[in-house]
Amino acid sequence: AQGIFLNYKFCAEQNNERMPFGVAQIGKSYRNEIAPRGGLVRQREFTQAEIEFFVKPGDKRFDKFASVKHLTIPMLSSKVQLEGKPVFTKGLGEAVADGTIANETLGYFIG
């Protein structure tokens, strides 16, 4: 992720400073692990992908949200969990409108 943030200015310029925009990267990652027997340290290698999506802090509307706002999904909001109620279904448009989902950008990626 650090590479995306370090290159933010370049990526924004490549997008003609238009918001919102996304940047994706893929690469190798390494993790040291202790073997279960004998205490040997081994290194695991795996491929990892990541997307960072940048929006204006004060304006998180997203044009493509209209294509998913009609979808209904199972939800379990924190309020419902605290009340001990079961999972319920709600449309993404309604969930964004009532604040269950914070904004259209998040709603789009959930859909």
From TrEMBL:
<dbReference type="Pfam" id="PF00587">
    <property type="entry name" value="tRNA-synt_2b"/>
</dbReference>
<protein>
    <recommendedName>
        <fullName>Aminoacyl-tRNA synthetase class II (G/ P/ S/T) domain-containing protein</fullName>
    </recommendedName>
</protein>
<dbReference type="InterPro" id="IPR002314">
    <property type="entry name" value="aa-tRNA-synt_IIb"/>
</dbReference>
<dbReference type="GO" id="GO:0004820">
    <property type="term" value="F:glycine-tRNA ligase activity"/>
</dbReference>
<dbReference type="InterPro" id="IPR045864">
    <property type="entry name" value="aa-tRNA-synth_II/BPL/LPL"/>
</dbReference>
<feature type="domain" description="Aminoacyl-tRNA synthetase class II (G/ P/ S/T)">
    <location>
        <begin position="14"/>
        <end position="69"/>
    </location>
</feature>
<dbReference type="InterPro" id="IPR027031">
    <property type="entry name" value="Gly-tRNA_synthase/POLG2"/>
</dbReference>
<dbReference type="GO" id="GO:0005524">
    <property type="term" value="F:ATP binding"/>
</dbReference>
<dbReference type="GO" id="GO:0005739">
    <property type="term" value="C:mitochondrion"/>
</dbReference>
<dbReference type="GO" id="GO:0070150">
    <property type="term" value="P:mitochondrial glycyl-tRNA aminoacylation"/>
</dbReference>
